[in-house]
Design a protein that fits this description.
By secondary structure, this protein is of the alpha+beta class. About 45% of the residues lie in helices and about 30% in strands. The mean pLDDT is about 75.
């Protein structure tokens, strides 16, 4: 579901800003994750970022200034990570990844 879920990331500049980032494993996971965050009162916005390297890609970015409860945000990010790790440990993650890869290949044909 995610390649990177970082609950606190500082961007240095004229003013230091704190963000939470969600980088999806597949782009179709982005909308589902965004809906989960918004449903839980966390204003996640799509953003083109190069947080994972040189190539920019669509991620969810949450500005800490917009978050009423930092603890809630950290809790939700932790739940996303734990869910991914539990799927990975159970072997279901690999099954899910194989299905998603197959689906992507079929849609590209």
């Amino acid at each position: 579901m995610c390649r990177h879920c970082e609950p606190k990331f500082s961007k240095k500049g004229f003013i230091t800003r704190n963000y939470a980032y969600y980088v999806p494993q597949y782009e179709e996971d982005l909308e589902m994750a965004k809906n989960i965050f918004v449903k839980n009162g966390i204003p996640a916005k799509e953003y083109m970022s190069n947080i994972m390297g040189q190539r920019k890609e669509k991620v969810l970015r949450i500005d800490y200034r917009d978050v009423k409860s930092e603890d809630k945000l950290k809790h939700e990010m932790k739940r996303v990570k734990e869910n991914m790790f539990s799927l990975f440990r159970s072997g279901k993650w690999l099954e899910k990844q194989a299905k998603l890869t197959e689906k992507q290949e079929q849609s590209q044909r």
